[in-house]
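Hey all, sorry for the wall of text incoming. These are the two entities for the joint prediction.
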Amino acid sequence: DTEVTQTPKHLVMGMTNKKSLKCEQHMGHRAMYWYKQKAKKPPELMFVYSYEKLSINESVPSRFSPECPNSSLLNLHLHALQPEDSALYLCASSPGVESNEQYFGPGTRLTVT
Amino acid sequence: KNEVEQSPQNLTAQEGEFITINCSYSVGISALHWLQQHPGGGIVSLFMLSSGKKKHGRLIATINIQEKHSSLHITASHPRDSAVYICAVPYSGGGADGLTFGKGTHLIIQP
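and here's what came out:
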C-alpha cells in the first residue's frame, strides 16, 4: 500500500465551527506533514511530525492544532477559522530521517464561510 | 530557509517538443525534488536527486550541486504531460523536515 489517504475531500465550515481533517498512511513511514496551498500558489509547510513528535511548527496560528495519535495517523483540528484560511490542505508522509521522499495525499479542499 | 527559483512560470508547447524547466536554489541541500501537480490538486513525486542525472520514461532530471541548479526535461512531450511542475528542496537542511517549493511551471502541451 503506497497511498496516503485524506478525509474529507471537501469541507465547508463556518467561522464558529470545530472540525478535523484526517490523514492516514500504512507504508511504515515515520514522518508526516501538513501543507497549506492557496489557489495558484505553491504549497507551504505548516507542521512536521517526526517519530510522532512535533518537530516543525511554522508559525501557524493556534486555530490550527495538529495531532499525531500514532505513526500512521495525522489529524489537523480546526477551530474559529477565518475565510482567508480557505485552501487545499495537503498531507504527506516520508520514510523518516533516512529519506525525505514525500508521498502526498489528494488533499482536503476547505472553504470557510 | 532556502529560496527556490523556477523558470519559466508558464510554458505552452506543441506535442512532440523537447521541454526544459529550470530550478535554482540558494543554500546547499542534501537532495532536490521534482513534483507534478494536476488540476484538482494531487501531487506526485517524480524525482528526488542529490547528484548527476535520473531518468524515468520520457522524464530526465539533472542537478549541478556546485552551481545549485537543476533541470527537468521532457522528451517527446504529449498533451497528458500538461500539469504544474514544481521544484522543491528540504525546508531546513535535510532529513524529515518538509519541503520548500518553487512557484511552479504551468506546462500546456497542445496536440
